[in-house]
Amino acid sequence: MLDRLSDKFQRFLKKLKGEVHLTESNVEPALREIRIALLEADVNYRAVKNFVSDLREKLLGEEVRNSLSPYQTVVKIVHQELTALLGGEGKRELKTLAGTDLYMLIGLQGAGKTTTAGKLAHILMQKGKVLMISLDLKRAAAQEQLEKIAKWAGADFIPAPTSLDRAFSTIREIRRSGKYVAIIVDTAGRLHVDEELMEELRKTREKLSPTEVIMVADAMTGQEAVRVAQEFNKKVGFDSVILTKMDGDARGGAALSITYATSRPIKFIGVGEKLEDLEAFVPERMASRILGMGDLLSLIEKTEKAVEEEQAKKLAAKLRKNAFTLNDLKEQIRLLKKLGGLKKIIPFLPKMPGMGALDDRKLIHMEAIINSMTPEERERPEIIKASRKKRIARGSGRPVYEVNQLLRGFFQMKKMLKSKQVRNMLKGIDI
Ligand SMILES: Nc1nc2c(ncn2[C@@H]2O[C@H](COP(=O)(O)OP(=O)(O)OP(=O)(O)O)[C@@H](O)[C@H]2O)c(=O)[nH]1
Ligand SMILES: [Mg+2]
Asked: Torsion angle of alpha carbons 190, 194, 197, 200, nearest 10°?
């Protein structure tokens, strides 16, 4: 799956392997190659452009830290960016509501709707009874095909009434009866996006209020699949995507740009013609697969976690000894941003009086202010008087009163750290 793209990414990483410093002169040629590789894999031009420019910024902007080698840092960044392109972190499941869920599959002819309906039934049947019904009323073979697939999957099947309106009321009635955990509604496909089909699907969506409308797209068709999905999204609307035929020699374009182009997540990928051949789509995992370095990535994760724990421990010790300086605060802010927000670390960060509620933007401002201080000022902030304050404000692009606020907050915090109550509390922190 995505073998060619994977080869290219691995070559890209190899190119940067020996580099100790990332500079434009070594990053640019590597980026150029990755750009070509993505375009060759039929990834949407705009998605490629964005991806490459984000990657450039991150690679050149990242201070390589002691904990990771420069190469590990590169691998980590590329993995993060690929994950983001594939739709971001986390596992996706089908939406589910109280009562009988209704999943409606849409897509072009031959995309794999009917086969995928069977695969979904196979998964949903772990929860209870599943009914399959096809709204493809024109093609007699469509009913037969779905019946066969339902039998294969062990799901119930009913042939659709001969008019769409009657079919809607039948489906609604069955849904209300609560006999099934899910009803899967298969629909007709066409060779091209045509108005009549769009109108029919719009109406179906409106009449049935599905739990989820799922766009089934054929990965083999690359950018065409993306274009078609955009059209369906505009004209009918859908909630998620299933990419089929990922087992073929798909160049990857669809997987890497359909979410970018439609803002809808890929939830599953089809990897064969059997019932079991439907995989949950996990962007991080797919990114690791493309980079082909699962082991290195898990090592990076472990190293970083260990380093963070070590830093948090050191910090707690400093707080206990009241040896906390502005440098520590700066390190703390960096950690905070890395951990992706304030919540996780607030227990370690005494509240800064006078700073008001901290938010992530304020943290960035605080960091800029501390960055504009000399090392001596960071260790001994009491030397910062009016003229230094002005210089710091200018250097950080923040107003003088924010410099004052930060210093005042910091001094009060130090004072607070001396109080018995806080010292006792800190004794309790053990991480
Ligand atoms: N290799 C592979 N083949 C697939 C996959 N999904 C579907 N197919 C095949 O693709 C062909 C078309 O699948 P269907 O499920 O009939 O497609 P459809 O969207 O229902 O087509 P219409 O009802 O004609 O609009 C069949 O031969 C399937 O076996 C997949 O994930 N991998
Ligand atoms: Mg079909």
From this structure: 170
Q: How far is the CA of 113 from the centre of ligand 2 (A)?
A: 5
For 8-64, write each residue's pLDDT tens digit.
888 888 888 877 778 888 889 888 988 988 898 888 889 999 999 999 998 888 765
247 lines ligand 1 (CB under 6 A): yes
Q: CATH 1.10.260.30 residue ranges in the chain? A: 297-427
Q: Which CATH number is 101-290 given? A: 3.40.50.300
Q: Are 205 and 229 spatial neighbours (Cβ–Cβ below 8 Å)?
A: no
Statement: 3-85 belongs to CATH 1.20.120.140? yes
* Amino acid letter, 228: V
Nearest CA to ligand 1 atom 7: 112
- Whole-model pTM: value is 0.72
Nearest CA to ligand 1 atom 9: 112
The CA distances from residue 102 to 53, 96, 123, 124, 272, in Å, are: 41, 9, 14, 11, 24
Residues 6+ apart with CB under 8 A from 349: 332, 336
Domain with CATH 3.40.50.300 in the chain: 101-290
Asked whether 149 lines ligand 1 (CB < 6 A), one says no
Take residue 265 and report the two structure tokens written for it: 């997540």
Residue nearest to atom 1 of ligand 1 (CA): 272
Domain with CATH 1.20.120.140 in the chain: 3-85
Q: What is the DSSP letter of 63?
A: P
What distance in Å separates the CA atoms of residue 30 and residue 22, rounded to the nearest whole number? 11
CA–CA distance, 259 with 33 (Å, rounded to integer): 23
pLDDT tens digit sequence for 157-179: 999 998 999 999 999 999 999 99
Query: CB under 8 Å to 308, separation ≥6 — which residues?
Result: 335, 338, 339
User: What's the CATH number for 297-427?
Assistant: 1.10.260.30
Give the nearest ligand 1 atom to 190 CA. 25
